[in-house]
Amino acid sequence: MARAPRGRARRGGLNRSPLYLAGDHPMITNAEKAVLFLLSLDEEVARPIVDELDEDDIRKLRAVASTMRAVPKDAVDLTFKEFLEKSDMAVAVPRGGLRYLRRLSAGSIGEQRARALFEDGVTSPLARLESASPEDVAGLLASEPPQLAAGVLSMVSPEAAAAIVGALFDSQKAPIVKHMSRMRQLPAGVLEDVASALAAQLPDADATALVSVDGVAKAAELLNASSKTASSSILSNLEADDPELAAIVRQAMFTFDDLARIDMRGMRTLLREVPTDRLTIALRGAPEAVAEAVFQGLSQRAADLIRDDLEALGHVRKSDVEAARREIIDIALSLEDQGKLSLGRGDE
What we know:
The chain has 348 residues and is mostly helical. It has helices at 30-39, 43-51, 55-65, 73-80, 97-109, 111-118, 125-131, 134-142, 146-153, 158-166, 170-182, 188-197, 215-225, 228-241, 243-253, 264-271, 276-282, 288-296, 300-312, 318-337, and strands spanning 185-187, 210-212.
């Protein structure tokens, strides 16, 4: 967004704004002046100005707004003395400025185009984390508190998170999974802080916003995407630090619905270890895919008997069904630990 050469300023472009031609100050750039000016105006006043900009201009403003934080008082005074009648204190760019600029742009160029401009993956820190080498990302997170690393990894794909955790030192892995498992809500500003380390920032990130996070599910997904050796090691370390949490995460790694993913041979191995009465209760209200997988693993006679028992089964408490399913899951996990059953999780 350099100043346009003489005679080449384009109509409607940012380079024609008088804001770029006066009050230059070494502490802020021309592009920062434009963003600061827009963010200092009420929305109804700023929108007509944005209407005069084209998409390329808005894209440039977006890039500046995503990394801008606060502007020193003297720089603001020198740059905006023609706009501000009084400047008694430093003017700071709000952390929600990017969202404000996006809203202005949506009113000018439409929601669809604004979404494409502001939510593309080119400058998204999360997209950068996903596409960067796990070693590079691990190097970035290694010096951060485990709470912060857990927050970042919970926002990327389980596969990417598993690869990044795999590149960390062993002593760092379990603490990160521990904090991830305990997360319930994540301050969106956490992602901004990490993004600034990558010279970028999440679009629409508000420092006061909260993102709902199922930490246990995220931790389970991460471990399931890891190799069995890696996940077992992390779980062992987590269990030594917090046995109760480790048990919860272990349970979340394999659910009753996941029985449908076990192959025929594995299902038969599992069913040989499950008491028929517990299996019948567990199948009460089970997803069709799970029931079908179980019946296919049984002989025709055994399957027919369980179907008959299900039809004759009276009221069963939900807690009893869940307990029976938990027993079957525990049996499956035990067989996996013994090498007798594959649950189709991370490869070695």
